Amino acid sequence: MILARIARALKDQNWLAVGHSLVARALPGGAG
C-alpha cells in the first residue's frame, strides 16, 4: 500500500534525522 510506503519513508527519515542530531551533538563543533 502507498500509505505504508510513505509511513516507512517518514520513519526512515526520522531515524536519519535523529542519528544526525546525535552525531552532531557528539562531535566537537558539530557535523555540518
From TrEMBL:
Domain of life where this protein originates: Bacteria
Name used for this protein in its record: Uncharacterized protein
Organism per entry: Maricaulis maris
Lineage of the species this protein comes from: Bacteria, Pseudomonadati, Pseudomonadota, Alphaproteobacteria, Maricaulales
